[in-house]
Amino acid sequence: MDRTYIADALKIPGRQVLVQGFVDNFRDGKNMAFIVLKDITEKVQVTIDKNAHPELLETIGQLTADSVISVTGLVKQDDYIKLHGIEIEPVSIRIESIAEPLPINRKEIPATKKKAALERSSIDQRIDYRWIDLRTDENQLLFKVQTLMVNNLRQFLLERGFLEIHTPKLIGAASESGADVFEVKYFDRSAYLAQSPQFYKQMAMASGLDRIFEVGPVFRAEKSYTNRHTTEFTGFDLEFSYIDSFRDVMRMEEELLTDMLEKVKEKYGGQIEEKFGRPVIVPTLPFPAIDLRELYDELERRYGYTVEESEKGDMTTEAEQLSYKFVQEVYGHEFLFVTGFDAEKRAFYHMRDEQGRAMGYDLIWRGVEITTGAQREHRYEILKKQAEEKGLGEDVKFYLDFFRYGCPPHGGFGLGVDRMTMLLLDLTIKEAMFIFRGPNRLNP
Ligand code: 4AD
Ligand code: MG
Predict the structure, then answer these.
(1) In the CATH scheme, what is the code of domain 137-432?
(2) How far is the CA of 301 from the centre of ligand 1 (A)?
(3) Bond preceding residue 439 cis, omega within 30 of 0
(4) 3 with 96: CB under 8 angstroms?
(5) Closest residue (by CA) to atom 8 of ligand 1?
(6) What is the pTM of this model?
């Protein structure tokens, strides 16, 4: 018999099905036993009348929580059953894999008459056994939502003539700054793990590919222990040619994200609110935008937040967080574009204006940076000078060569997929990733 997903089985009372999954819950009573069986689509109650089915007793006697079983049986409608008003009356139960007692508590277990309450395991303990932690409804929803998000970004760009490329992650030079790069042994020399696909996105522009994007791993050797930093994340990067200004890049991004959030809300808005307690808000266009100095003035005037004059060319973490309050109050919006960063604080490849400001932006969502974007410097001599000023000479020569034989004006951005997921679902980055990677975490 072919397997039926539980969500489909629920729709066909009266039929015999084979359903397979994890034992989500198991109660073994004197006369009756109840299994809640869970697969990736749904849950269903399997009801066993022990007197009527003595042949199943031995199997039931071995069952433990989270064991994997195959159940063949009749789908029955019964309005008294809490879970969907449906139960499965089994004719056979096969144990595929027995689970040992679980080493973590995925949720707090409330006290009973016999046992004291059990606390939920910490996120670090849960990551030690991430595969068990990922079996929860919340975590499985997370991956369904993330799949929809990335797929929608991809679809949006494909409809607008973008090509998808796959760039190397082993490279000969640091792509963002020399500081946060992982050096790896590469035969008898050193290589570096790509800190972004930046150089190759731009090479694609010099190749005449016109509009490209990439979804791929990004490595940062940062010893950060925050709720939003990891040493390996998934970047959604794009780059396109013949722009007039970085504002064209901002337009592209706001439309892309709005379309994506529309689709997420449509399909998963209800479930996200139920499981994560946070509504999905579809933003209005255009997103508010503000110059960095103006933002600092506003934050000082409204909330008494002050920073040293010398720090005002970049965004502090506190300013990022406070900017959420500001953008909600003033614009009733969750997103804020911030422009006017000092070139000195930005990567060398950003184009600069006459005042020495980078011609780019950060996008802040719910108080956290999710994107940096810019128009790039495509004029060889100027780019070379900017690289040298940052002490990047020989290392980036191969990259500078991309601009010597004809290259259109272009710009793009890098969007952190893990940050986006985390902010959408009100989680920390550790909770939002399939497996987190940090300075102290290389396993599982
Ligand atoms: O701001 P970043 O460093 O920009 C770049 O990589 C440029 N090449 C982008 C461009 O096209 N100009 O990284 C882009 C995004 C950040 O805005 C953030 O969402 C995410 O990547 N990110 C991180 N996410 C998790 N952990 C980290 N350590 C991250 N560093 C950056
Ligand atoms: Mg950035």
Answers:
(1) 3.30.930.10
(2) 30
(3) no
(4) no
(5) 198
(6) 0.95
Question: What is the reported pLDDT for 61?
Answer: 96
Q: Which residues contact 128 (CB under 8 A, 6 or more apart)?
A: 103, 104, 443, 444
Give the separation between CA 416 and CA 339, rounded to whole angstroms. 19
Instruction: State whether CATH 2.40.50.140 applies to domain 6-97.
Output: yes
In the chain, where are the structural domains located? 6-97, 137-432
| Mean pLDDT of all residues belonging to the chain | 96
Report the separation in Å between the CA atom of 253 and the middle of ligand 2, taken as the mean of its atom positions: 15
Q: How far is the CA of 53 from the centre of ligand 1 (A)?
A: 59
Return the amino acid letter for 340: G
Q: pLDDT tens digits, residue range 53-69? A: 999 999 999 999 999 99
User: Coil, strand, or helix at residue 269?
Assistant: helix
Residue 176 confidence class, pLDDT cut points 50, 70, 90? low
Beta-bridge mates of residue 238:
213, 413
Sign of the torsion angle spanned by Cα atoms 308, 312, 313, 317: positive
Q: What is the DSSP string of 375-429?
A: EB---HHHHHHHHHHTT-SGGGHHHHGGGSS----EEEEEEEHHHHHHHHHT--H
